[in-house]
Amino acid sequence: MPKPAQYRSGSLIYFQGDPAEKIFILQTGKISLVYQDIESGADVRDPVQPGEFFGVKSALGRYPREENAVALSDTTVMVFTVPEFEAVAMANSRIIMKMLKVFSNQMRRVHKQVSKVMAKEEQEPADGLFNIGEYYLKNKRFSQAKHVFSRYLTFYPSGRNAIQATKNLEISENSLARFGDGKGPGVSMTSSPADIARDDLGKAAKTFYDASSFVSQGKYQEAFIAFKSIVDSNADPEWTSKSVFEIGRCMFLLNKYDDCIKYYTNMLTKQPKHPELKETIFIMGQCNEKLDRQDQAIAFYKKILSIGGSEDDSAIIKAKRALSALGA
After folding, report:
1. Do 56 and 26 form a contact (C-beta atoms < 8 A)?
2. SS3 state at 17
3. What is the largest CA-CA distance in the chain?
4. Cα–Cα distance between 250 and 219 in angstroms, integer?
5. Pairing of strands 75-81, 31-36
């Protein structure tokens, strides 16, 4: 059954790039959906009114969130799983009509933005598509960049930008796997992480980038094996430390939640000050949520807050959001 959830003013309900597993209907309060204008890069804010739903398109399409959802006041929402929402929608034609209206407005807005970008210099369609991909990549919107460059190579495999599109696709995949959308250092368009690895780094680094690429492709078992090979060889302390953490993340992505908790518990026993300490604790909290152990999950999220850090620390932001969703 759908469940109510409450968010305080200023809370983030979900981030751009988050997995889209839930659909929301606003009951009380104010919510704004924040995304970037494709042409100017400026923030665009779409208000959500009581009675309206949001998060539908990405959840039904099973791709990452395209915007941030921010509570502008104390807010109550109803949270649906995809099957729950589909059942309600099928029983209520008014909801379907609302969906069509919202999607139609969104498609008109996106079409208008893309048309302006592509007409700006009277570009060929291939060039326009390529430039949109580079816009996303420069702004660290890696999931969108990955999608656009994949489409470019599908439609224009022999296009004049095909070689650079291939490199940019690789940059997008590796950056998404390592940092996530909107995170990480600035992106260079001239060389991919794999190029750098081949030229400047050792075998461990090359293997790490290959493993990260497997993660971005959803090949979690292959990634697990590659990261484990780095740890087993123990040839480079930096990449070994990174890989130790990534092995646990692969377990989580493979839905091996109990194994992930045991693995990370052992890791933190040996390395209590691991560089990814807070991210590790957050994943352990997520594992407990998946196993319906809410009290344990809350304890892990509160542990992250007790460690402290800056306001823009991603682990702290995610922990606060998770606690809010659990009503803690």
Report:
1. no
2. coil
3. 61
4. 9
5. unpaired
Is-contact 24 14, C-beta < 8 A?
no
One-letter amino acid of 293: R
Query: Of the candidates 251, 239, 185, which has an alpha carbon nearest to the alpha carbon of residue 215?
Result: 251
Q: Could you read off the pLDDT tens digit of each residue along the chain, which spans 328 residues?
A: 788 999 888 788 888 778 888 999 899 999 988 876 554 555 678 888 888 888 888 888 787 888 888 888 899 999 999 888 888 777 776 666 566 555 555 555 544 554 554 444 444 667 777 888 887 888 888 888 888 888 888 777 767 777 788 888 888 888 888 877 777 666 655 544 444 334 434 677 778 878 887 887 788 899 899 999 999 988 888 888 889 999 999 999 999 999 999 999 989 888 888 888 999 999 999 999 999 999 999 999 999 998 887 766 778 888 899 999 998 7
What are phi and psi for residue 293, nearest 5 degrees? -110, 75
Residue 237 to residue 218: CA distance in whole angstroms? 26
Sign of the CA dihedral with 166 first, then 167, 170, and 176 last:
negative
Spatial CA neighbour of 192 closest among 262, 145, 123, 250: 145
**Predicted TM-score (pTM) of this structure:** 0.43
Q: Which helix (H) or strand (E) holds 282?
A: helix 277-290
Nearest Cα to Cα of residue 130 among 116, 157, 149: 149
The string of DSSP codes covering 225-271 is: HHHHHHHHHT--HHHHHHHHHHHHHHHHHTT-HHHHHHHHHHHHHH-
Q: What residue type is 131 in one-letter code?
A: N
Closest Cα partner for 131 from 179, 168, 171?
168
